[in-house]
Write a structure and sequence with these properties.
The chain is an alpha/beta fold and 297 residues long. The protein has one domain: NAD(P)-binding Rossmann-like Domain (Rossmann fold, 3-Layer(aba) Sandwich). It is built from 9 helices and 12 strands. The strands form 3 sheets. The protein has an 8-stranded parallel sheet with strand order 3-2-1-4-5-6-9-12, with helices on both faces. It starts with a strand and ends in a 17-residue tail after the last helix. 43% of the residues are buried.
Length: 297
């Protein structure tokens, strides 16, 4: 049985990756910081380690065929920043994988990273991708457009009664559900792809996203279009007027709004269903409890 180690396993995408690889018959090892708080998660084995501390990874990848990392932080906390986690923790994973003779390393990156090099989170991720591509190990870089969960910002605006968009709202995106992204990732790895720029099955303009959010509420759309210069001003001011845990994700969000975030279409899940599930309080994430370790590997 092939063995995969998934870092970032307790995150939104990581849980779907664990479930997808178990569905495909792999032995799934989830790398977690705290096993007690990691459940429920679809994994055959939980390994506790702090990826930011290279010594804790010793022996974690023995016998592993594939490492997949969706490790990263959205909001900087615990005294750690993007360069500690998105870069250095992933470098630590890579070095441990190299020492253990892992065959392939797959990494979840960001679409259009070059255009967002000024964003600290993206800069740290891109620096790790450069390290990964210098490695002699085979690798796959997955660059998603955006998650369904990211689109909840549009739903939140609609719930507040008005959506605020920069420019004319014509920039496009095809966001992807976590389960569809996990399946696309697994297939890209199986096919031996070096890179996959990936999105969901439906392409929306930002205006259409706002309209869909209002429609999910059964409300008439109320959308205000702001001059794009205000977005650019906000980008310049954020590092000086907000703490890093707020300015970091806000700078990424505002930068991505100026781009067409469209990748190859994958998956079958629809954003309208996600909005409806969010409003009804239901979750479509994998929740089946699996025992931490199977007897037979």
């Amino acid at each position: 049985m092939k063995r995969v180690l998934i870092a970032g396993a307790t995150g939104y995408l990581g849980r779907y990756l664990c479930a997808e690889y178990q569905r495909r018959g792999w032995y799934v090892i989830a790398l977690v910081r705290n096993a007690r708080s990691a459940s429920p998660i679809s994994a055959d084995q939980l390994i506790e380690a702090q990826a930011t501390q290279a010594a804790t990874l010793k022996g974690a990848m023995t016998g592993v065929d594939l490492v997949i990392s969706s490790l990263g932080i959205t909001r900087q906390a615990d005294g750690l920043g993007y360069w500690d986690v998105d870069y250095q923790a992933n470098v630590n994973l890579l070095r441990a994988a190299e020492l253990s003779g892992v065959a392939r390393f797959a990494y979840i990156h960001v679409l259009h990273a070059a255009e967002m090099a000024h964003v600290p989170m993206v800069a740290a991720k891109s620096a790790f991708v450069a390290e990964l591509q210098r490695s002699t190990m085979a690798s796959t870089v997955i660059a998603p457009t955006g998650y369904f969960s990211d689109m909840d910002d549009f739903l939140n605006m609609a719930q507040s009664g008005r959506a605020w968009l920069f420019g004319d709202g014509s920039k496009q995106i095809n966001p992807i559900h976590g389960a569809d992204l996990a399946a696309a990732t697994a297939q890209a790895v199986e096919d031996g792809l070096d890179r996959l720029d990936v999105g969901g099955p439906e392409i929306f303009t930002q205006k259409e996203l706002a309209e869909l959010a209002f429609a999910s509420l059964g409300s008439a759309p109320r959308i205000t279009f702001l001059p794009d210069v205000l977005r650019r001003i906000a980008l310049g001011l954020l590092p000086y007027v907000t703490p890093r845990r707020i300015s970091g994700p806000a700078r990424f969000f505002l930068s991505a709004l100026a781009l067409d975030m469209v990748g190859a279409r994958h998956g079958t899940r629809h954003l309208q269903t996600h909005f409806e599930n969010t409003l009804s309080g239901t979750k479509s994430a994998p929740v089946q409890q699996h025992h931490n370790e199977r007897k037979n590997s």
